[in-house]
Amino acid sequence: MQRKQRKRKERTRRRKNTGFEEIRDEILYVGAEPLGLESGTEFVLYLPEKSVSDLSEEFLSWWPGRYEWDGESERQLGCYGIRNQETGAGFFSDAACMVCGSAAVSPQTGVCGKCGTTQ
């Protein structure tokens, strides 16, 4: 009996997070389902060393680094990327350390929080 009650509470909690609106510190927060994950059962993980020339235009359209790339020169992705095979949606980490592969590189300093290497 206790298990059913716990599950019911979890479901209720999830429903409250979807569709809510709250203003905190002058920022409007809106609860919603995760975009790009609502469907799909197959996802591909790309490592930072992956050549962007091997990736589809659709996937690269989600990549934050696309504005820094001329579209022709050889370049590595430089971060972790996940592609939803069904929808084509892409998700990317912050820059990854080219020495240890950690996604803990500070965008402000360019220093890896794991190995201390400056990128």
Walkthrough of the structure:
This protein is an alpha+beta fold. The termini are far apart. Helix content is about 15%, strand content about 20%. The longest helix has 16 residues, at about 1-15. The strands form two sheets. A three-stranded antiparallel beta sheet has the order 3-4-5, with no helix packed on it. It has a two-stranded antiparallel ribbon with strand order 1-2. Mean pLDDT is about 75; it is low at about 1-15.
Main sheet specs: 3 strands, antiparallel
Oligomer: single chain
Q: What's the gyration radius in Å?
A: 19 Å
Q: What is the helix fraction of residues, given as a range?
A: 10-25%
SS-based class: alpha+beta
What portion of residues belong to β-strands?
15-25%
Task: Give the strand line-up of the largest sheet.
Answer: 3-4-5
- How would you spell out the order of helices and strands? HEEEHEE
- The stretches of 5 or more residues where confidence is low (pLDDT under 50) are 1-15
Q: Give the beta-strand count.
A: 5
Task: Offer a concise description of the structure.
The protein is 17% helix and 20% strand. It is an alpha+beta fold and 119 residues long.
